[in-house]
Each structure stands twice: as structure tokens, then as C-alpha cells.
């Protein structure tokens, strides 16, 4: 592979969007069922941004695919968190649109929980989601651990 192409591939990054889906002061957490090394840990639902797709559009699509909901991105949470290369996590707060179905675990998850701020740390979050969850709580004016 030519050096310039190899360097370009090394610096490329793929954005994974995560949703801090909020409802009535609660945050939705999703428990992974796959892959095996992540199963049983909790995350903010979401997924990869496809080539040519805007992150906000990817967030709406991923929430529809994974949870069966119609959601609306509200604002980007400051920060970006590294996942395994070349992936990085970006998080948006989001809300359910009026008339949306209730969230249900359709893909890669086996349980969902609406967590109040005092229960946020009751679940074992994926390591890469912990700083994003802290940032979401800070933006909500809630004490983080």
C-alpha cells in the first residue's frame, strides 16, 4: 500500500453516535447482548455514521433500528471519546417525538432501563460510555461521581 494511502487510513476516523435519550429527567440505558465481550454491560444506544450521513441523521436511524422509536436530536454533548481505532464516540441529547412508540430492545440489546439521576451508576456502563454519561449529567446540573 502506498505510504500516503496508509497514512490517510491511519488518520481516518469513524464516528459512532450515542443517544442520551432523556424523558422526564430520566436517561435511557441499554444493556448489550452482543458481541460477547460487551454483553451484560450498559451503554447509550446508537451506532456508526454511514459514509455521507450526517451524525444527527445517523442517530435518528440507529434509534429507530435499535429501539423502534422516533427520536429527535436536541444538542451535541461536548467532547469526543475514543473507542477502538478508528472509532470515536460522539453523543447527542435526544427526546422521543410525540406519538413515538416506547423504546424496546430490538437489536444488540436485551434490556432497557430509564434511570433517574440518583440511579445512573446502578448499572455497569461500558468504560467508553462513562465519561459521556458524566458529561450528560453535568449538563443536566446533576452531581456526577
Automatic annotation (TrEMBL):
InterPro entries: MutT-like (IPR047127), Nudix_hydrolase (IPR020476), NUDIX_hydrolase-like_dom_sf (IPR015797), NUDIX_hydrolase_CS (IPR020084), NUDIX_hydrolase_dom (IPR000086). CDD domains: NUDIX_MutT_NudA_like (cd03425). Coiled coil: none annotated. SUPFAM superfamilies: Nudix (SSF55811). Belongs to the Nudix hydrolase family. Residues 12-137 form the Nudix hydrolase domain. Its EC number is 3.6.1.55. It catalyses: 8-oxo-dGTP + H2O = 8-oxo-dGMP + diphosphate + H(+). The lineage of its organism: Bacteria, Bacillati, Actinomycetota, Actinomycetes, Kitasatosporales. One of its GO terms (biological process) is DNA replication. Its cofactor is Mg(2+). This is 8-oxo-dGTP diphosphatase. It is an enzyme of class 3 (hydrolase). It comes from the Bacteria. It comes from Streptomyces phaeofaciens. GO terms for molecular function: 8-oxo-7,8-dihydrodeoxyguanosine triphosphate pyrophosphatase activity; 8-oxo-7,8-dihydroguanosine triphosphate pyrophosphatase activity; 8-oxo-dGDP phosphatase activity; 8-oxo-GDP phosphatase activity; metal ion binding. The keyword Acetylation does not apply. Keywords: DNA damage, DNA repair, DNA replication, Hydrolase, Magnesium, Metal-binding, Mutator protein.
Amino acid at each position: 500500500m502506498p505510504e500516503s494511502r496508509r497514512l490517510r487510513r491511519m488518520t481516518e476516523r469513524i464516528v459512532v453516535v450515542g443517544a442520551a435519550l432523556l424523558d422526564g429527567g430520566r436517561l435511557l440505558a441499554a444493556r448489550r447482548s452482543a458481541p460477547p465481550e460487551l454483553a451484560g454491560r450498559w451503554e447509550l444506544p446508537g451506532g456508526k455514521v454511514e459514509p455521507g450521513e450526517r451524525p444527527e441523521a445517523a442517530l435518528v436511524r440507529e434509534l429507530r433500528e435499535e429501539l423502534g422509536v422516533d427520536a429527535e436530536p436536541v444538542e451535541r454533548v461536548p467532547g469526543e471519546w475514543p473507542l477502538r481505532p478508528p472509532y470515536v464516540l460522539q453523543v447527542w441529547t435526544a427526546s422521543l417525538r410525540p406519538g413515538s412508540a416506547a423504546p424496546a430492545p430490538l437489536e444488540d440489546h436485551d434490556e432497557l432501563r430509564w434511570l433517574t439521576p440518583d440511579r445512573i451508576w446502578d448499572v455497569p456502563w461500558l468504560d467508553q460510555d462513562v465519561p459521556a454519561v458524566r458529561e450528560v449529567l453535568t449538563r443536566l446540573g446533576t452531581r456526577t461521581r
